[in-house]
Design goal:
Organism: Planococcus antarcticus DSM 14505
CATH architecture: Beta Barrel
Domain Catalase core: 1-301
Active site: 26
InterPro entries: Catalase, Catalase_core, Catalase_sf, Catalase_SrpA-type_pred
Largest sheet: 10 strands, antiparallel
Bound molecules: protoporphyrin IX containing FE
Helix content: 25-40%
Keywords: Heme, Iron, Metal-binding, Oxidoreductase, Peroxidase
Number of domains: 1
Shape: globular
Radius of gyration: 19 Å
Structural class: alpha+beta
Order of helices and strands: HEEEEHHHEEEHHEEEH
Number of strands: 10
Distance between the termini: 26 Å
CATH class: Mainly Beta
Oligomer: single chain
CATH topology: Catalase HpII,  Chain A, domain 1
């Protein structure tokens, strides 16, 4: 896996350029300090300590998906929200979400192959012939690409909905397994931008907007868990679960102030704690290797 991850990061650098000390994806972003207040409503489904009733500290980083930090905000319609929970026993655990509910590749091999084909990803637009070739080879990827074309970026980091994309398992006291996905919802309501409005935004608008909001008071998100049913795919990030699945509110994140020191942190999505397990999803498990390579490179470049 490490070798394939090296190849994938190499392809990203070839297509988007190498930007020393920046993350190899989601390069531009801002980090904040927060508190997470759990409702305890999923206490019968998981023994995870941060989902039992109570309050803990957390860090959050919002980002634009592009591996090139110089891209304008509008060129990255997909935004990221990475949260690290500080558990009472000193451990940490992460949830890493994006504004898209699905990913474009089913396996790390397909992801790396697709990057190999895209040689001219300039300012967010691969050539149409390259896109047509890709879609012919990987029809499941079309859903994500069609989604991005339709997708309106949120008007602010504070007004996006962020999906874990991958499934995880909650494990309870009786060792029963419940497949779940996470969804962060903004307490102030979701809001999108029209493409025209987005194009008019100056670079860094999203970061300045967050600063302005936090200066006026905390920014809040609700963490929901979506409960999978038998037959819902747990190993395929290109597939969404049906809309009508039951949701539980796990808790509320209150974002209070900037935390620039967190820029260095690695938000590995596979870092889970007792009471939670990663699913079999190959992309999820591959990310552990890719993030480590990116983290090692960017830290050595500071
Ligand atoms: C083959 C699949 C993927 C690869 C190779 C990949 C690669 C990367 C890399 C290299 C980073 C920077 C890590 C660091 O330096 O700390 C990153 C960050 C990120 N990725 Fe992925 N990624 C993949 C899939 C996904 C998926 C499916 C999601 C959806 C949730 C996602 C969401 C994010 C977010 C939100 C960040 C920013 C995290 C932060 O703020 O530190 N990625 N990705």
């Amino acid at each position: 896996m490490d070798k394939l991850a090296e190849t994938a990061i190499g392809q990203i650098e070839k297509i988007f350029g190498t930007h020393p000390s920046f993350r190899r994806a989601h390069a531009r972003g801002k980090s904040y300090r927060a508190r997470f207040t759990a409702t305890g409503l999923a206490g019968h489904l998981t023994t995870a300590s941060h989902f039992q009733e109570g309050e803990i500290a957390a860090f959050v980083r919002f980002s634009h998906f592009s591996p090139d930090p110089t891209w304008a905000d509008a060129m990255s319609p997909v935004k990221g929200m990475a949260v690290q929970f500080q558990l009472p026993n000193g451990e940490v655990t992460n949830i890493v979400g994006v504004t898209s509910p699905i990913f474009f590749a089913r396996t790390p091999e397909i992801f790396t192959e697709m990057l190999g084909v895209v040689k001219s990803f300039k300012k967010g637009k691969p050539s149409l012939t390259e896109l047509a070739d890709l879609l012919a080879d990987y029809p499941e990827s079309g859903a994500m690409i069609a989604n991005i074309r339709k997708m309106q970026a949120p008007s602010s980091f504070a007004t996006g909905q962020y999906n874990s994309v991958h499934a995880f398992y909650f494990i309870n006291q009786e060792r029963q397994r419940q497949p779940v996905k996470y969804l962060w919802e903004p307490e102030s309501g979701t809001e999108t931008l029209s493409l025209l409005d987005a194009i008019a935004l100056p670079i860094g608008f999203f970061e300045t907007d967050m600063e302005d909001r936090i200066a006026k008071g905390p920014v809040m998100f609700r963490l929901n868990v979506i409960l999978g049913q038998p037959g819902d795919p747990t190993d395929d990030p290109t597939k969404e679960w049906p809309e009508n699945r039951e949701k539980l509110t796990l808790g509320y994140l209150t974002i209070t102030e900037k935390a620039p020191e967190v820029e260095k942190i690695m938000f590995d999505p596979t870092l889970v704690t007792e009471g939670i397990e990663c699913s079999e999803d190959q992309i999820l498990n591959f990310r552990h290797h890719a993030y480590k390579i990116s983290h090692d490179r960017r830290i050595s470049e500071i």
